[in-house]
Design a protein that fits this description.
The chain has eleven helices and 14 strands. The protein is of the alpha/beta class. Bound molecules: S-adenosyl-L-homocysteine. S-adenosyl-L-homocysteine binds next to strand 10 and strand 12.
Length: 356
């Protein structure tokens, strides 16, 4: 079976043309799946019955199944999806005023090895396909009532997005396509550990997405410890690549900084970070460490967080402290999958849990 969501509009058009179908069938089909939230070919009433039967026998819309669906009191919902090969990934819907933001994954696991992150603790298993990335968007879209739309996407789930650009960019084409999900590129953020050649690919491709670059340390020595992949990538190269992206499309850059008590939250470190960022049109997103089971890092106290932020704002840096969403449902990347890896060995079956 082919995964419908893996087919580009052109490939779908070709598939239909091979069966003697006119080009507008591809438009109808995409409209059913992407806009009208159809879950099966059978109900696509403006397609000939024979075509519906043929589609159903050769193409599948869904390759994942929902293993866990959690709701938090703040409106956040999280899905743990099982892929066709039994691997599991996470995606999240965040409700904030009028915004309906989804957080999606690009890989099973992650190879970057950031020491405080649950996603990479067991390394990377594989890249997701375009279809698997689009499927997360649709699964989350289906959680919304019919009169609500997805408004924003953050590619901040499991995995390093820039290590899987070949699958991600076509998936984001579906998201931005007015005939797809119709989400403006300016409302899509790609978060990266900071891989300069891949950032340059985004620049060269003329991408209009927001870029968020994970720094986590103001100097190479500490960054190499916290973000092992950066041992071979000096901060200055990461910043230069980010600057080229900014020069090309003028999207304000975001830098992310996980605040780890006693490790990267001192006044001196804030001052050095301010020096790095002061001359850039950038937002610094400070993320207080979200505890991961089995890891010994500390979330700094509110006072320590404030002190860190004040040094930066006094130096003219634009800072935002990321508020936590869906805390009680393990909404931080990779946590739910890890819990399920531990638990499913014993329990094995579908669990639908509701908290809050
Ligand atoms: N691979 C991408 C996306 C990671 S998730 C990247 O490195 O940017 C988005 C952000 O959450 C990253 O900045 C990541 O470092 C951060 N993060 C990961 N684990 C965290 C934790 N336990 N607490 C707080 N932030 C975390």
């Amino acid at each position: 079976m082919l995964h419908l969501l893996d087919l580009s509009p052109e490939a779908l058009g070709q598939w239909l043309a091979d069966r003697g179908q006119p080009a507008y069938r591809a438009v109808q089909l995409r409209q059913w799946v992407l806009a009208r939230r159809a879950t099966a070919f059978a109900g696509m009433t403006n397609l000939p019955q024979r075509l519906r039967d043929e589609l159903a026998s050769q193409l599948t819309i869904w390759t994942t199944r929902v293993v866990v669906h959690r709701h938090a009191a703040d409106g956040t919902e999280k899905l743990l999806l099982e892929l066709a090969d039994q691997n599991r990934i996470e995606c999240v819907l965040i409700r904030e005023n009028e915004r309906r933001t989804i957080c999606i994954s690009t890989q099973v696991g992650c190879a970057m090895g950031c020491v405080f992150c649950a996603s990479g603790l067991d390394g990377v298993v594989r890249n997701l396909t375009t279809g698997e990335i689009v499927e997360q968007m649709l699964r989350l879209q289906h959680l919304l009532p019919a009169d609500e739309r997805l408004t924003n996407i953050v590619v901040m789930g499991m995995g390093e997005p820039l290590a899987n650009l070949a699958a991600l960019l076509p998936a984001l084409d579906v998201a931005t396509d007015p005939a797809g999900l119709g989400i403006s590129a300016r409302r899509i953020t790609i978060s990266t550990v900071g891989l300069p050649p891949a950032i340059d690919r985004l620049t060269d491709a003329g991408c209009q997405y927001h870029l968020a670059v994970s720094l986590h340390a103001p100097d190479d020595a500490l960054r190499s410890e916290l973000v092992p992949v950066s041992r071979k990538i000096p901060l200055i190269d990461v910043l230069a690549a980010a600057d080229r992206y900014f020069a090309a499309n003028h999207r304000r850059l975001t830098f992310e900084y996980v605040l780890l008590g006693g490790l990267n939250d001192s006044r001196e470190q804030a001052e050095r970070l301010a020096e790095l960022l002061a001359r850039r049109t950038a937002l610094l997103n400070v993320i207080p460490y979200n505890p991961v089971a089995g890891l010994q890092y500390r979330t700094p106290s509110a006072k320590a967080q404030e002190r860190f932020v004040r040094v930066l704002t006094d130096a003219g840096v634009n800072v935002q402290v990321r508020t936590r969403k869906g805390d009680e449902i393990d909404a931080a990347c990779g946590q739910l999958r890890r819990l399920s890896l531990d638990a499913t060995a014993a329990a094995g079956q579908v669990t639908v849990q509701t908290t809050g």
